[in-house]
């Protein structure tokens, strides 16, 4: 408990102190690009109004594959390289802009050759309207405004917040964003999660992690409300960043009992940038109160995505920290390789249930952005009681697994965008 109180006190003090710092101003006193609802103009300069123009459509997609080595498979029959190559995903994208209106959708396909399972579902599908350059309204399947945006991590595996549905989460609903100088405010209502689409599981054929039904445990997510406030700042000596707070509340209907449980989460976050360096950190508290039938264990919830459900502790704290350095390599490589971003991301899930072992994840890696359609990520991931970095999948994020030993995975992700 003292560690939790200390972390919250430090994060809260940092957010309050940073909120009092001067706002970041754009160099040269330029106005925002026309139609950009998320640009922050220089102090005293009004943003340009969105221009009315004809529709502009874009279609694209990506193919991604993984090459990997898992430490927990070392005792099994030795695999040759082709057996360690797997298709990650195939994506199809479409977007448009037309004056004050815009929209975007992405559909993904995953094939798990080891199990012979094909699953596919939308990543997002939304339409947006800008009343003016400082406001935007979006409706559809879209990112939940919570914590560090757009991501709390730099690597292929995200942070542990992702596996509890609190990073890069997408749901079906409405979002309003308002820019006020250095401040950004978000308010959102999600009547439903994004739903389960095509796959073999009962309720887990989706991109982002939600509370799902699985067998006798018939829970779900409804009527989620989100509030987020963030302020950009400048400290001096070339250091800029953002600090903010997020609140989330929603219902957990149980189809067996006919009663609604409740869920809530709170987050404090901060991001610092100086030249090629970036540091970001976040503290999250979450709680799922279930209305299960008698005899069902309420210490964990069943969450699912990518067509596989697993267990997550019902209450806990998540701590996230990541350091990154972006190296511009265009001159050294003759433009072949544009940037290499080195990073180390650490996250810890501290479960409230004393008999549950904490989960940890540390990822050291690099993202390589080549000229053209190629993007490559190389990660060395260490996990403890981690469903995706260790032999125990179902119980890792709840009671734990593998005796608390560390496991590792080296992963090379190759992506071609078109």
Helix/strand layout:
Layout: H1 2-19, E1 56-70, E2 85-98, E3 101-112, E4 117-132, E5 135-143, H2 160-163, E6 170-180, E7 183-193, E8 210-211, E9 213-214, E10 217-218, E11 222-236, E12 239-253, E13 260-274, E14 277-289, E15 300-305, E16 308-313, E17 315-328, H3 330-333, E18 337-351, E19 359-370, E20 374-384, E21 406-417
Antiparallel strand pairs: 1-2, 1-21, 2-3, 3-4, 4-5, 5-6, 6-7, 7-11, 8-15, 9-10, 11-12, 12-13, 13-14, 14-17, 15-16, 17-18, 18-19, 19-20, 20-21
Q: Which structural class should the secondary elements be placed in?
A: mainly beta
Count of DSSP E strands?
21
Largest sheet: 16 strands, antiparallel, barrel
Succession of helices and strands: HEEEEEHEEEEEEEEEEEEHEEEE
| Mean residue pLDDT | 89
- Form type: globular
End-to-end Cα distance, whole Å, is 50 Å
User: How are the strands of the biggest sheet laid out side by side?
Assistant: 1-2-3-4-5-6-7-11-12-13-14-17-18-19-20-21
Q: Indicate the proportion of strand residues.
A: over 45%
Low-confidence parts: 5-11, 16-20, 25-45
Q: Percent of residues in helical segments? A: under 10%
Number of helices: 3
Radius of gyration using CA atoms only: 22 Å
